[in-house]
Amino acid sequence: MIASDASCKRTETILSAPADTLKSISISPQDIQVLRDIESFILRTENISSYDFRYLGKELLKGSDCYVFEVVPKKDAGSNSFTGQIWVEDTDLHILKLYGKLARDSRANNSENLFPRMEITRELVDGTYWFPATATSTDTLSFSSGPQKIRQLVQYDNYKK
Predict the structure, then answer these.
(1) How far apart are the C-alpha atoms of 93 and 157, rounded to whole Å?
(2) Does any domain span residue 146?
(3) Which class for 112: exposed (0-12), middle (13-18), buried (19 or more C-beta within 10 A)?
(4) CB 53 within 8 A of CB 73
């Protein structure tokens, strides 16, 4: 459970956790941080200049007309920056879906930290705010030791004010 107090300080409580089924790979602290940061990826005035955008067209998504953009971080955007596509509802300009990588791969000093492409869907909560509903991935990561198939599912629910 993730909660914020009146001063916006974030607290996390693990209510339950599934058994670890990983065999050939492990989860790094950066992997955990990326999963924690999924809900906070919002293009805001203060970080929009860190990205380049290319309009790809319009699509219908969940009954809403959306603009689709390719989003690429500029070189100075940092390692935890989104690369991929976003679907922006054409009336109120809310991001309804993201598909891409939430961090840059790193390979250094015989260490590899590779990240999958993820699809993040967002839903209207409380009639006002758009929050992540699911973050899913089925991808193959190309490690130097060989390809590794992975599947991830993160569900966000029970949002409360």
Answers:
(1) 23
(2) yes
(3) middle
(4) no
Question: Which pLDDT belongs to residue 53?
Answer: 94
Amino acid at 105: D
What is the per-residue pLDDT across 142-159, written as a single tens digit (0 to 9) for each? Answer: 998 899 998 888 888 777
CA 75 to CA 159: how far, in whole Å? 35
Global confidence as pTM: 0.79
CA distance 61 to 141: 28
Q: Per-residue b/e over 63-76, b at no fewer than 16 CB within 10 Å?
A: eeebbbbebebeee
The pLDDT tens digits of the residues spanning 38-97 come to 655 666 767 788 889 999 999 999 899 999 999 998 877 666 678 899 999 999 888 899
Q: How many domains, in total, are found in the chain?
A: 1
Range of the domain at 110: 28-155
Nearest to 28 by CA among 38, 40, 36: 36
